[in-house]
Amino acid sequence: xxxxxxxxxxxxxxxxxxxxxxxxxxxxxxxxxxxxxxxxxxxxxxxxxxxxxxxxxxxxxxxxxxxxxxxxxxxxxxxxxxxxxxxxxxxxxxxxxxxxxxxxxxxxxxxxxxxxxxxxxxxxxxxxxxxxxxxxxxxxxxxxxxxxxxxxxxxxxxxxxxxxxxxxxxxxxxxxxxxxxxxxxxxxxxxxxxxxxxxxxxxxxxxxxxxxxxxxxxxxxxxxxxxxxxxxxxxxxxxxxxxxxxxxxxxxxxxxxxxxxxxxxxxxxxxxxxxxxxxxxxxxxxxxxxxxxxxxxxxxxxxxxxxxxxxxxxxxxxxxxxxxxxxxxxxxxxxxxxxxxxxxxxxxxxxxxxxxxxxxxxxxxxxxxxxxxxxxxxxxxxxxxxxxxxxxxxxxxxxxxxxxxxxxxxxxxxxxxxxxxxxxxxxxx
Length: 429
Hints:
Largest sheet: 8 strands, antiparallel
Strand content: 25-35%
Shape: globular
Strand order of the largest sheet: 15-11-13-12-18-19-17-20
Oligomer: single chain
Structural class: alpha+beta
């Protein structure tokens, strides 16, 4: 047994850790528990009394240069792919805010990026995948075992252990991004800017979640397109490191307010254009190794929700007002626009606005998050399971309407008796 936690550092449990050496070895073990990649899910979705770690399933299998189709094992990370394929002129079709996730994790969480409004989520670019259920290896796609495919994509590892996948990369001419940053004086302006720039491939807004009144939701909207010029130069390892847990008292409403004010005002002009490498544009926090230590030894959680577009202005306003009133500001608050969701049974995105907020853990936090849950439900929204550590069964089942179909399919394949996490038990799966 070994002490184990996830990126939010809460909870900390004792777990039996299994590291299969090959795919064939994995099938032969007939394992139970939950699959795990690099441990970058924030809460307890990849924690169980037994976890099956994919670190040895890290081989490229083939690449179709004509169509950009990469086939690889599930333990290959986005970092591995960028290192090898950016110099060849290829990039990930969809990437989350860190490159330190595996392909298996990206599929299980159906991760999204700054381009969901135009290009969907990660699994929308997956053409097939293979997973192990007990001692059987099953390949599925939209045409072959489609029900299992749509349950596995976004299925939080609860249908089996993903062992390999084939997915599409996008061609690029340069490793650089043409970036535009636009200041928004409040939430209304930010939402208008998202609409104005809806045809730009990448968009995301940082929000000052402690601002109030006429400044409520003041933001910096960051837009990007792949540049046509510049070398196909891959990223470097992060130069900075957080050597130990910071004292948690350093992160309080005063320091967060000071940071937010300084960050918003770092840009004096209404609009700034520049060309930057893809690494700081897509992965700004990857430049600091162990950045999760800045929230202190008690850890942190990220609260990410989505609400339908028609309720966006009203719902976001109510949530931002609740956070500002609580004085429990978030060090990081990021707003994005989602396009239409897909057919995956438990995939998070739906057409609307998604806001992600980091909070350090303390005694008052969960009551605030319970209050935010009520607002999210009021506007027919839902929470992202990959970031969650405390959602109730009632909240989950009310906001993921296809959970019964998902559970029925798990039973059909016998996966309900084999694969579970702390989160799945909490939410009734």
